[in-house]
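The freezer alarm interrupted the setup, so I double-checked each line after restarting. Inputs confirmed:
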Amino acid sequence: MSTTLIDPRKTFGEAVTDYAAEHERVLVLSADSGVSSGFGRFKAEFPDRYYEFGIEEHGVTGVASGLASTGFEPVFAAIAPFVTLRNCEAFRNDVGYMHQNVKIVGRNGGMTYSDLGPTHYSLEDYAVTRMIPGVVVLSPQDPGEIRGAARAMLEHEGPVYMRIGGPFIPELFDESPFEIGVGRLIESGRRATVVSTGTITVEVIAAVRALREQGIQVDLIGMPTVEPVDAELIRASAARTGLVVTVEEHYVRGGLSAAVAEVTGGLRVRRAAIGLPHEHITTGTYPELLARYELDAESLSRRLRGLIEAAV
Amino acid sequence: MTELASLEVEAARARLLITRMLRVAGTGHVGGALSCIDVVTALYFHTMNVAPERADDPDRDRFLLSAGHKAMAQYAVLARRGFFPEDLLDSYGTLGSRLAGHPDMHKVPGVEANTGALGHGLPIACGMALGLRRIGRGGRVFVVLGDGELPEGSNWEGAAIAGHYHLDNLVAIVDANGLQISGRTADVMNMEPIADKFVAFGFSARTIDGNDMRSVVDALDATPFSAGMPSLIVARTTKAKGIAKIEDTAGSHHWKPSAEELDQAVRELQASIDRLELTGARS
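Predicted 3D structure, all chains:
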């Protein structure tokens, strides 16, 4: 793990721009949100492939569908709730039901806009988007995965939603090709199966390593695809450990917890979900919120230990 | 027979096909289908560069029915135009049919968008128009909206886009029959003056009698009305045009005729075809 912190938005924008240099069909759509989503270089290099629409997410989602129907591959990025909830029906009908090759990216996902409050949080985006049939949902965990996921998303034919964060994040893994629906075994152990997604994984890794020092070893699966999850990897681990715990920066309903519960439903295992409580989340600095909702490494270590001990 | 007369006959035949679907399903969005069917007929038989044998031609013109509940009009015209056999209309509304109450592009040849939820057609049409302009081989986009769907804010997001990007390969037609489920559109939510609103967003607009084939054809022939501007046609129409008993009634929006009423409608529409064929043959 590197200690250098990297801008996820810039990382994402650069990855799309690099891909677009070789693929003319890729267009960027902005709802006054393109440059702040990392597309400054794209706009400078490909001004005729960068479309500005002003602040109107329903309209832009429809436009994305129409452009895709004529053979282009539009990427529409903005603050996560505005491209998952404000435009929800256009996402479901125009992109999902019409099954168009549209890529929608929610930035500053989760509660990373911690000072702006619930209007700018996305704690239901996994749940909402994974309910639309045929939509792939990605939530990469570090800059290398953002680069890989951006490329995989653009190579995939069909609708994709990807969540990225806002605060700078460390590189966690050696970079490798990103495969949609494939999880990553980060740590191994027999006491529990911990499944994590998105940028909260940095906290989960620290928590699991602290547990290891206490003599408690668990499987930690990093799952940067929320839909579809890696059922085979998760089921095999769960069958071995007997306890599955999901960790996500999302409400504990409908997101990763539900996806993992669905694929382990036939197994005789205990399940627990760690995430945000189903309430309107307060404001503060991002580290303060992580601590307040016990999603920081220290709290996670304590909570995971409690769940493991209760399961014995 | 002149082209105009034959278009009038086509529209009359399409009207009769709506009763064929109604016979199977028992009920349907008849009023709006009958109000817009002259425009839809003119588009498929006169204006648009489309053909059933090249339904996937990337350079074809696109037609979207933003008011997707008027699907029976599109199905009838697509069948008449040869996109699928008329026999398929006998499956309308039945379990698993390709022809549902709202059109599905994955099931029906010639359908370009899965509309039905209102306020979606214009933004999608803008995307298609932008895409066809990028391709640069002349493809145009025609979208029919209902006047009852105009309060949906997303229409005005689309209107802003069309104006801002000077989409002169886009023609929006508002089927203004003046009625919706709850009554007179002007009473439910007054969106008049419709043309002025679109003009304010950068459209060039005309208002016509949308059930008069000559007016419809003349307006479509004149598009784009202004270079560098999207076109808007306010087609003033009569809801349920062609079935006298329910013309200009909110009740026709989703009509469930008795067997006797349906038989009467069939006789009336058949008589209309006969009359038009007779007068057309003399023209």
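Quick read of the result. The beta strands of chain B are 62-65, 141-146, 170-176, 179-180, 183-184, 204-209, 231-236.
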